[in-house]
Amino acid sequence: PMFAEPLRGEDGTPLNIDCLIQDGSRLLACTNGLGVVGVTDGAVTVLNTAPRPLFVKSLAESRDGQLWFGTGAAKSVSGVYARDQSSKAVRIPAPTADVLTLEANEGGVWAGTERYGLFQFADSKLKKTYTFENTSGGLRSNTIFTLFTDREGVLWIGTNRGVSRFDSLGASQETLSDIPNSNFIRSLFSLDGENALAGSNRGLFRSDGKGWTPVPGFEGKVIYSVARHKNGEILIATPSGAFTSSGKLIAPGDFRSFANFRSRTYAAVYDRGIVAIAPNASDISSVVAPSDPLVTAICEGADRLWIGTAENGLFSFDGKSTKTELRLDILKSGTIWRIYSGNDGALWIAGQHGVFRIRDGQVEKIIDAEDVRDVVVDHGEVWAATTTRGLLHARQDEQFGWLVSSIGFEQGLPSEKAFAILPSAAGHLIATNRGVVTYRPGTIAPKLIATRVLSQRPHDLSELNSTIALDYPQNTLLVEVAGQSSRTFPEEFQYAFSLKNGKGETIDRRLSNEAQYAPADLSPGDFTIESIAFNRDLLASEPLMIRFSVAKAPFPWTATALGVLLVMALVGLIWAIVEHRRIAHRNRELAAARLDLANEAERERRRIARDLHDQTLADLRNLMITSDKLAGDNREFRSEIEAVSTEIRRICEDLSPSVLENVGLVAALEFLLDRTVENRRFNAAESVEDRITFPLNVQLQIYRIAQEVLTNIVRHSSATEVEMNIEVPAAGDFSLTIRDNGGTFDPDGTQKGRGIANIRSRANLINGKVNWKESRSGGNIFSLKVGATNGDR
After folding, report:
1. Which class for 566: exposed (0-12), middle (13-18), buried (19 or more C-beta within 10 A)?
2. 3-state class of 90 per DSSP?
3. Contact 111, 155 (CB under 8 A)
């Protein structure tokens, strides 16, 4: 605290301090009982005034150095005092009653009262009173607690029902007449920089600095355009003819606009063309450009008169003849409502489909809007009046191109139907269908702050003072900013973002109403995001720089180790594949060799069988013939010879089964089953023989396997029933199944013998697979499966 003890009144009770202000080197405080007191170096002195109000609730110092007091007062009595350098306090006449707050700014001194609204004082006089009732609710309440002026000169008003604002530079509307159509303004014309003429749907009006008064002689007339003749006479264009400002008719016709070119004055007359007006503005001297009668606008150029039409584009007139400059299919403006010639040689078109700039014969669409009625270019600032979006403002930025903002109903225009623009010292005059509006562009640039910075975590805004380091694998950053301006709504801001790399090269740009920017997929390195906010008046804020870096990926030790192991595994796999192929090749060679040996054994069997058949059986037949020639009974001897011959034939058949070559594999197997087992069953489809494509040597090995299996069944299983099934499920495949009802058999058991080994060896020779298993109903099931790729040797 400044004092150990409270400040007390004359009766010793503590005083309430309602406000404090700095006055030079001292502090002034308003009290409820002692009036205003000053505090200097810890000492308190009463500020003497004559008279001296005792119950002071607020203080303010005006721009001229006067000290203003806001005091308690009775109803209809002023509670506002002004004190000059002579210490004399003067009560300012105004029915304020209790004044709760004071504020001084360029608009004067403002007093907020307890019950009667807001009072504005200028030059120590009451200028205007604002209440809830006369502001249509703009002032939320007549009870005002606090006032504050921001850096843009906007007055903020705190009431018991919320906050209001008063912008002295905001758009202000002026009505010209009580007749609605008289406030439908179509044209504006400056007389001398201060006074102006406004043409409406119901007459012509003149301003005198205080208001608008009707010009006699134009009552009820629609005014399209106002201009000055070469001789200084004011010309008025109406649908019924051209008039002077005194009301004199120059010529009848649907006149749209005037322009001075060289030494003459010309007029655009719809359905007639371009006409020249006499030097004394008394009549039309001649029709100079009848080639396109649907003329809507003309404008003076440096070396020609520019002519805009409703259906055929842009023409020019050099003083002698007209020429087509841009056809409508090239200009694409629709009806040309107004033409403006810039100081830089560019020509500006306000057309039905936007604002166009023509420079060096090239057409550029600057503003995309419908029904643009007027365009003005002032120091690079483009202003356009439209009947669809109100007033449009455009400015070209070196980095981001054309910026466009809209000023309509929410920004103070009484309507979004605007028809003409007139620049003036007080601001731009805008002709609308509800009167004339003065719009003053702001001059204070907005501020821009960062509201959020986010990567994989939210960043504290204090980190923006240094470079934000993004750890791998982060390669993006989200930035959210906010523009601050009293005269611009948040949604009206335009935000420009530029992304630059460590070399200062711009790698990305963006302009939109979005306050967020998130570049993605950035390569490692240093980056800078430059953010700029543009307010409603297209003023740019100071750039906000956010620097950050994207880290490189760390050396992948783990991945490298895994990669090395993977390479080693791949090398081992390749070696294993190569070795497997080598072994498989060797196995195929060995299998081929074994098959060759088996085939050689079969060939030897066939040779032996052939020798037995050809030689031994022939000898036995000769012996039988010889025995028949001997005397006596030789029947027993002959029977022995026949038995030996039969046995030799059986041996020959076993050594080389001729049935296999004669009738095929299936019939040979059926014959083998019939010859080996008494109680048997053979199953094979009729066409199965035709589907077997194995060579004879493979079929012989299948036959031998079946022969060995049947022999083992007969010798060892005590089976009474045997069933053989032959199937060819697919082309080149073969399946042999033999079932018996004998005792169970384990091929891998302790029994030793050559039979099982021979079966498996023969199966391996033809790449077949053999299997024994126990049947559920008792007995054994043997299966042999041979594939086409395995058996084709």
Report:
1. exposed
2. strand
3. no
User: In this predicted model, what pLDDT tens digit does every residue of 618-647 receive, in sequence order?
Assistant: 777 777 777 777 766 777 777 887 778 777
Residue where the block lists tokens 């106002």: 226
What's the CA gap between 468 and 522, in Å, rounded? 14
Per-state percent for the chain, helix, strand, coil, to nearest 5: 20, 40, 40
Q: What order of strands is seen across the sheet that includes strand 435-439?
A: 172-174, 435-439, 427-432, 418-424
Alpha-carbon distance of 392 to 367, in angstroms, equals: 8
Contact residues for 304 (Cβ-Cβ < 8 A; gap 6+): 261, 316, 317, 318
Distance CA 543, CA 527 (A): 15
Does residue 326 sit in helix, strand or coil? strand
| Phi, psi of 593, deg, nearest 5 | -65, -45
* pLDDT, block means (10 residues), the chain with 793 residues: 68 80 84 84 82 89 90 93 85 94 93 96 93 90 95 93 89 88 94 88 89 93 95 95 94 95 93 92 85 91 93 92 92 95 91 95 95 94 96 94 92 92 89 93 93 93 92 92 92 96 94 94 94 96 95 86 93 93 84 72 74 74 76 74 77 69 83 88 88 84 87 87 90 88 77 75 86 87 79 40
SS3 778: coil
Distance in angstroms (rounded) separating the CA atoms of residues 141 and 133: 9
- Kindly tell me the burial class for residue 313, based on how many C-beta atoms sit within 10 Å of its own C-beta (0-12, 13-18, 19 or more): buried
pLDDT in tens, 68-109: 999 999 999 999 999 877 788 899 999 999 999 999 999 899
Give Cβ neighbours of residue 319 (< 8 Å, ≥ 6 apart).
261, 262, 305
> What is the SS3 assignment for 25-64?
CEEEEEEECCCEEEEECCEEEECCCECCCCEEEEEEECCC
Task: Please spell the DSSP secondary structure of 204-243, one letter per residue.
Answer: EEEE-SS-EEEPTT-TT----EEEE-TTS-EEEEETTEEE
Give the 3-state secondary structure of residue 488.
coil
Number of other residues whose CB lies within 10 A of the CB of residue 143: 18
CA distance 71 to 35: 9
Q: How many CB atoms lie within 10 A of CB 574?
A: 10
Q: List the helix and strand counts (H, then E) for the chain.
A: 9, 56
DSSP string of 641-696, one letter each residue: HHHHHHHHHHHHHHHS-HHHHHH-HHHHHHHHHHHH-SSEEEEE-TTTGGG----H
* CA angle, 40 then 41 then 44, to 5°: 50
Residue ranges of E strands in 201-341: 203-207, 212-214, 225-228, 234-238, 241-244, 249-252, 255-261, 264-269, 273-277, 284-289, 295-300, 305-309, 314-317, 322-326, 336-341
**3 state DSSP class of 750:** coil
Half-sphere CA count of 483, side-chain side, radius 13 A: 32
